[in-house]
Design brief:
Helices cover 41% and strands 13% of the residues. By secondary structure, it is α+β, with helices and mostly antiparallel strands. 6% of the residues are buried.
């Protein structure tokens, strides 16, 4: 576990995860896309983890780039400055509710 200071906010992060996020950050700075997928049960902390990782990647992340439906996501992508992080929370509908199909 390591701590890092981003704009005065202290974030505790696993050292191995930090190494991988740093690799992703380097690639994003080379104009590559980077997508993270967080899967788990309700209440497992997926949103907090995704927001923390996105904030580590992009300290300019604001609520304006946290989306809850396809329209918000499309608008965020169109308006976001280059190299910005965007978090799509509850994106289950993108996969046609695939998780629900697994439970049937």
């Amino acid at each position: 576990m390591v701590t890092t200071n981003i704009n005065g906010v202290h974030i505790y992060i696993d050292g191995y995860l930090k190494q991988n996020l740093d690799i992703a950050k380097t690639r994003v700075n080379k104009k590559w896309d980077c997508i993270g997928l967080y899967v788990g049960d309700e209440g497992d902390g997926k949103t907090v983890k995704a927001l923390t990782d996105a904030f580590y990647q992009d300290p300019t992340l604001t609520i304006d780039r946290v989306c809850f439906n396809p329209l918000q996501f499309e608008e965020a992508v169109d308006k976001a400055p280059p190299l910005s992080a965007i978090v799509y929370d509850e994106a289950d509908e993108l996969g046609g509710h695939w998780a629900n199909k697994l439970l049937l």
